[in-house]
Design goal:
alpha/beta; 39% helix; 4-stranded antiparallel sheet; 10 strands
Length: 260
């Protein structure tokens, strides 16, 4: 099977200083990759590089990132914009902050669809309703007419997932999608994300500090420390049988509840 995404020996610098060094991994269609490590290890930087969101001071200085055989590192911005949305979706760590506070949810979803296709507002809302019902937003009419500050953190997070999945992308990048949610809502959101993979065959890169989330979701796991790749492979091997000392220490730091 040809990988959906290939990251080959990528080094990323900010203002000339390397923050991610020589990272390589593959992602197959429908596969979930969990990326774990301490804060500042470069987890979010990798998915920002895939999206072209490194900012003015950031740059891929070595290596290549291939999506469906196309090198997104060298891709012109106009061509890259055609991929972002229909092909590659993004769930931000704080979806509420990623949304415009003075425009309704419906207006923002309609605008994102209109950027890539000719569609009426009514058709855009109908498409949003179908997906919102799938991810537990049953009161979808109220949600579409609401501003982000009128919704709870969990509802904004689901709106972010909905917006990212509206065009059924082949690849979903999720940056700490459950970190701001309570445990009950975390479980529901993760179940909804797995349902989206089942329905649409979407591959995912899941960036998180939560090892439990990775264990429940990921097929493959990438472990980072200070921008370096410490371990990479099938989830069960990396999480439970790694031979790397740092990975072992990271897994041993996870708290476990015991019952008598």
């Amino acid at each position: 099977m040809e990988p959906l995404l290939r990251v080959e020996h990528v080094t990323i610098c900010y203002n000339g200083k390397p923050v991610v060094r020589d990272i390589s991994f593959n992602l197959n269609p429908g596969e979930i990759l969990g990326v774990v490590g301490e804060s500042g290890s470069g987890k979010s930087t990798i998915i920002k590089a895939i999206m072209g969101l490194l900012g003015g001071g950031g740059m891929v200085t070595r290596g290549d990132i291939y999506y469906k055989g196309q090198n997104v590192v060298d891709m012109p911005q106009k061509e890259q914009r055609r991929l972002l949305g229909p092909e590659i979706g993004m769930v931000f760590q704080d979806c509420k902050a990623a949304l415009c506070p003075i425009r309704t949810i419906g207006a923002q979803i309609y605008e994102s669809l209109l950027e890539h296709e000719s569609i009426t507002k009514e058709k855009a809302y109908e498409r949003a309703w179908v997906l919102m019902k799938k991810i537990g937003l049953d009161d979808y009419k109220r949600v579409l007419d609401s501003y982000p500050f009128e919704l709870s953190g969990g509802m904004n997070q689901r709106v972010g997932i909905c917006a990212a999945m509206m065009m059924k992308p082949s690849l979903l990048l999720a940056d700490e999608p459950t970190s701001a949610l309570d445990v009950t809502v975390q479980k529901q959101v993760l179940e909804e994300m797995k349902l989206l993979r089942k329905d649409y065959g979407t591959a995912m890169i899941l960036v998180t500090h939560n090892i439990g989330v990775v264990g429940a979701m990921a097929d493959q796991v990438l472990v980072l420390q200070n921008g370096n790749m410490m371990d990479y492979g099938p989830a069960d091997r990396v999480l439970n049988h790694s031979e790397d000392a740092y990975t072992q220490n990271l897994m041993n730091s996870v708290l476990h509840l015991r019952r008598d």
